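To the wet lab folks,

You asked to see what we're planning to order before we commit. Fair enough. Below is the target structure as tokens, and below that is the sequence we designed to fit it. If anything looks off to you, flag it before the synthesis order goes out.
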């Protein structure tokens, strides 16, 4: 099968490879900076359109994390999760526009995002609880089960890298191929209803990545409250089929 990127504007110029992915990532980066700049350029008590949109978005991100990790910590990790949301959303949506490619349909991009979240939440867990206390919760609540639970928990945590990266990659790659085939079979206005489905998928995958980031942070930093028992797996299991 011919690669989708050769049918894009930048793919026709740069070919298929790292160059076209980096070029689309730069577009996403510029879009993110533009939105942040437009929202904060003229901050007013009565917000304008972009400021209103950004305030609603940030309020929604806090509300998303409130039940998972508590409002205080949801606000503490707001910069990370909100930035991830903006990046992933624009990266997902970019590929819906004919002539452009979806950066998150590249496993290298999604794997990098997953590794960043993995390293950060473990760092936060160690920083807040200390190395010994943080690693101790991998052994489980029963001491005699520790030799069994510890390796299982380690494998479980590393599997989150695969879960985060391949879920986003697989869904967006599938959307890319679906749109490509649809445009070849039925161009012009016929595929318009499909754009609504693809837009919803892009938004849903952004939400999943953000909520899982909050979930993993909750499991790392609120050990003493026992939140780690309810945080990680239920959401993964619920969203696994998405």
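Sequence we intend to order:
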């Amino acid at each position: 099968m011919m690669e989708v990127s050769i049918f894009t504007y930048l793919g026709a110029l740069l070919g298929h490879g790292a160059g076209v992915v980096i070029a689309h990532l730069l577009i996403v980066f510029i879009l993110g900076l533009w939105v942040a700049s437009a929202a904060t350029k003229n901050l007013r008590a009565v917000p304008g359109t972009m400021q209103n949109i950004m305030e609603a978005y940030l309020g929604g991100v806090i509300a998303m994390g409130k039940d998972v990790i508590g409002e205080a910590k949801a606000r503490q990790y707001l910069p990370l999760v909100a930035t991830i949301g903006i990046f992933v959303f624009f990266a997902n949506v970019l590929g819906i526009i004919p002539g452009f490619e979806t950066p998150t349909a590249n496993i290298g991009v999604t794997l990098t995002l997953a590794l960043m979240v993995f390293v950060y939440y473990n760092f936060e867990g160690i920083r807040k609880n200390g190395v010994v206390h943080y690693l101790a919760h991998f052994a489980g609540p029963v001491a005699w089960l520790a030799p069994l639970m510890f390796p299982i928990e380690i494998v479980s945590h590393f599997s989150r890298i695969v879960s985060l990266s391949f879920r986003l990659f697989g869904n967006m790659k599938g959307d890319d191929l679906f749109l490509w085939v649809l445009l070849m079979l039925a161009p012009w206005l016929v595929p318009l209803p499909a754009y609504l489905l693809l837009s919803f998928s892009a938004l849903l995958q952004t939400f999943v990545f953000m909520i899982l980031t909050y979930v993993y942070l909750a499991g790392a930093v609120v050990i003493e409250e026992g939140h780690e028992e309810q945080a990680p797996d239920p959401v993964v299991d619920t969203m696994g089929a998405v």
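Structural context that might help your review: Residues 4-239 form one domain. The chain is about 75% helix and 0% strand.

Thanks,
Computational group
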